[in-house]
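Sanity check

After download, print the first record. It should look like this:
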Amino acid sequence: MFQNIGELMLLFSRTVRALPLAWRHRQKVLDQFFEIGNASLLMVCILSFFIGSVIALLTGPVLVVAPVMMSILIAGRVGSAMAAEIGSMRVYQEIDALRTMNINPIHYLVLPRLLSIAVALPLLVIFSILVGWGGGALVSTANMKIGVPFQAFFSNLKEVVGFSDVANGIFKSFVFALMIGVVSCHQGLQTIGGPRGIGRSVTKAVVNCIVLIVILDYFLTRMLL
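Expected structure tokens:
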């Protein structure tokens, strides 16, 4: 476990040092951003709407749930894809071919994915919060047992939710995004054993991301409080 933590920190530090090269790989960054953001938008919208609806019925804060739920969704949807794509390149020796052509795999594969998810996930969380509020307002208006009009719902929301609450949720999602990107890429780079090894890497990447999201959420919540 400690070896994996050390390898993750090393991969993250190497990727951060490669940030000045991001402009050179801007097309790959944009491609990854589209894949992470646009391809996940429909799922985020549906999930957020119904989460907001349930939360309105339970009168709980949507901001507490949004970063964690969206991060878990992205870990399953995008993290698995990152691990599978890089893992297949590792198994079929495409990463070795990159090194042969004097192309750094971290610069070419990890950096665009980490930058893209670090931008896309906070934006998706903001979108999910807005959709969740819309779902909550709709249920509050339509449900006769609650009977809260749209204007009253958002008026009360302003009194309950402050700017710091939104900022904390965005900060959490940014930290989760970096973790998902590093863990998924690292797991892909460590893949061995053919197609079965790719499946193991994808499973480990998703499981590790979900576990770390829950753990990080606890510590981040305590820190921000």
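If your output differs, re-run the checksum step. Summary of this record's structure: The two ends are 29 Å apart (CA to CA).
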